[in-house]
Amino acid sequence: MRAAVVYQKAPDQRPNGATRPASAPSPVADGKSERRGAPRGPGGALLILFGLLGAAAAWVLQTEIGETLAAQACFPHRTPLAAPQWSWLMPVLNVISVVALLVGVAGAWISWRSWRVSRDAHPDPVAAISDTAPGRTRFLAMAGLILSLLFVVGLVATGLAVVLVSPCSTWR
């Protein structure tokens, strides 16, 4: 029943039961902004979405583009070649791997930063429409951090395979 009591407080009532005087200026009105609630801004949701899916999308694109290029360069017209028919294939695959790794690391960094900001945020004294926004942001940022770090490991492994294994070699 404690939850029902917490959510039924008036907007001018503070969590400890004390009320804010009506004449007291709000922290935002006098120019002093505090960190309150979930990180808000025009790009906040897009940054969290990039942190959640950026590394995964980079890994999928790296794998799909690399496999497609290698297949076309090494097996044209369904005949295997000993070496790629395009001399630029290996540098392009290396560049794709590096760019994908940078995108994955950027996704992990953005997720970590969003998690730190949402972890340090103080809840708003005035209840918003939904009091779950800070918790949701913190959860999505942590999920993005975990997913990004896992996909960065996948990006590193795929990048090492590009460097160490010839694209035209047979699998045995």
Give the amount of beta strand, in percent.
under 5%
Compute the separation of the termini in Å.
64 Å
Report on the biggest sheet. none
Which segments are poorly predicted (pLDDT under 50) over 5 or more consecutive residues?
A: 26-39
Mean pLDDT: 77
Share of helical residues: 55-70%
How many domains make up the 3D coordinates? 1
**Secondary-structure element order, N to C:** HHHH
CA radius of gyration is 25 Å
Shape: elongated
Entry summary:
This protein is an all-alpha fold. It is 59% helix and 0% strand.
Please tag this protein with its features:
4 helices; 172 residues; mainly alpha
Give an overview of the whole structure.
The chain is mainly alpha-helical and 172 residues long. It has one domain (44-121, 129-172). Helix content is 59%, strand content 0%. The protein has four helices and no strands. It has helices at residues 2-7, 44-74, 89-120, 133-164. Helix 2 runs antiparallel to helix 3 and helix 2 runs parallel beside helix 4 (133-164). The longest helix has 32 residues, at 89-120. It is elongated and about 60 Å long. The N and C termini lie far apart (64 Å). Residues 26-39 have low confidence and may be disordered.
